[in-house]
Design a protein that fits this description.
447 residues; nine-stranded mixed beta sheet; Serpin domain-containing protein; Serpin_sf_1; serine-type endopeptidase inhibitor activity; Serpin_sf_2; alpha+beta; 9 helices; Alpha-1-antitrypsin, domain 1; Serpin_dom; single chain; Antithrombin, Chain I, domain 2
Length: 447
């Protein structure tokens, strides 16, 4: 699971300018959240029979196709940012490029001038409308794809019953001071393309920060429950959450799980529970100083594992964005693969302001920041935080994340071949959606 938050602050407060009636909820409370505007609703797919419903989903998927150029920019952002974040990692790290991308895209939608140029350049598109439309397409595509797979499973795999099914859930929200003036076009774009809910709040109240944490918990299926620290200088927060569950194409037999030794980068040893399985018809490849394989996890997603050769450090795999891209991508052979994988479960929490500055998007943190598409009030980004969790067991993988940005005040081949994936030392992993790119990229130092 994962969530990301971008926090902004401002130098002055004005009466709210946005009046949007169809989906308002007045809370009647003088503390915390006072009003909520719900995001646009997706058009429902219906039909008189299964074939008609499938055709409806296929049409929706065609209508919301993500362009190759946008996907290339999304991937480039993932490699650039992940290489920066993983550098110097001496412990487990799990990072969500997609969650940070959404938080930055929502901020970029409200930016202009140099601030917009830096954010959009980092995100891989200079066109404001393309950024919004393609971000919306990712959200819609994943939702309609989920619906398509659910209909398929009901028709052809009824035996799955209550077994947990693969899914990707994205949610966005904006939390703004009740007195802050937001521009209607910006609010409309967030609700219509980013499917963000808009919350009018008082950041001086403890209840607001509890409500934000509760929203994150709800959108990550309870995996993340952050205790957010109150900051009265905050005037606006942008939050993205990402929840993911994938089930292994072939589940690891629980009776084959046994304790064994995992050797960390510093040579120290720890005991971990290792899952064991030998399967045929799996992708496998060997590169310069490493070997890699992947496991299909359902709904057009897969998890990639990259193991450095004996005597090579895992950090070599992400020393540069180019090396990271090479490690996570490549031409696979199909063969028998012997898997020995430690079960692991851990969380990561990181502040990303310095990372974003190094990536060339520093203007949004300065008093010169231009968010004039969002508001006429002078605001800048005061913090960008991301918290994630990932867990791997015999059944599959579950991940969640949130990213929050805060604005604060200025002032098929030979089956005879065999590949070994013995993950008994630090390794790189990535979880990828064919449509939305890299959901998570991380490194396991200690299972």
């Amino acid at each position: 699971m994962l969530a990301a938050a971008l926090i902004l602050g401002g130098c002055g407060a004005k009466p709210p300018a946005v009046e949007q009636g169809d989906s308002k909820t007045e809370t009647g409370s003088e503390k915390g959240v006072t009003e909520v505007i719900e995001p646009a609703a997706l058009e429902e797919v219906t039909g008189k029979d299964t074939d008609e419903i499938w055709e409806g989903y296929r049409q929706k998927l065609d209508e919301n196709e993500i362009t190759d150029s946008f996907r290339a920019g999304l991937d480039a952002f993932a490699y650039e940012s992940a290489a920066q974040i993983l550098q110097g990692a001496e412990e487990n790290v799990n990072y969500s490029p997609l969650s940070l991308y959404y938080a930055l895209a929502m901020a970029g939608a409200g930016a202009d001038g140099k601030t917009f140029e830096e954010i959009s350049g980092l995100l891989g598109t200079k066109e404001r409308e393309e950024l919004a439309t393609q971000s919306g397409n990712i959200y819609r595509y994943l939702r309609y794809q989920q619906g398509f797979h659910e209909v398929y499973q009901e028709e052809y795999e009824p035996g799955l019953g209550e077994e947990k099914k693969p899914e990707i859930l994205i949610a966005n929200s904006l939390w703004a001071d009740g007195k802050m003036e937001l521009k209607p076009d910006y609010v409309n774009q967030l609700t219509d393309q980013y499917y963000a809910s808009i919350h009018r709040v008082s950041f001086a109240e403890d209840e607001t920060w509890k409500e934000m944490g509760q929203w994150i918990k709800e959108k990550t299926n309870g995996v993340l429950e952050p205790e957010l620290t109150k900051d009265e200088e905050t005037v606006l927060a942008l939050i993205n959450t990402l929840y993911y569950y994938g089930s292994w194409k072939n589940k690891f037999p629980e009776e084959a799980t046994k304790p064994d030794t995992f050797t960390r980068s510093d040579g120290s040893e720890v005991t971990a529970d290792f899952m064991n399985m030998t399967v045929t018809g799996y992708p496998y490849r060997e590169g310069d100083g490493y070997r890699a394989s992947m496991i299909n996890t359902g709904n057009n997603t897969s998890m990639v594992f990259v193991l450095p050769d004996e005597g090579r450090d895992v950090s070599e795999l992400f020393a540069t964005p180019e090396k990271l891209k090479e490690a996570l991508n490549g031409e696979y052979e199909t063969m028998e693969v012997n898997w020995k994988m430690p079960k692991f479960s851990f969380g990561s929490s990181m502040k990303l302001e310095d990372t974003l500055r190094r990536l060339g998007a520093g203007d949004m943190f300065e008093v010169t920041a231009d968010f004039s598409y969002m508001t006429d009030a002078p605001v800048l980004v005061s913090s960008v935080i991301q918290e994630t969790h990932i867990g791997v067991d015999e059944s599959g993988v579950e991940g969640a994340a949130y990213t929050m940005m805060a604005l604060a005040g200025c002032a098929l081949i030979e089956e005879t071949k065999v590949g070994d994936m013995i993950l008994d030392r630090p390794f790189l992993f990535g979880i990828r959606s064919d449509e939305a790119g890299w959901l998570f990229i991380g490194v396991v130092e200690t299972p």
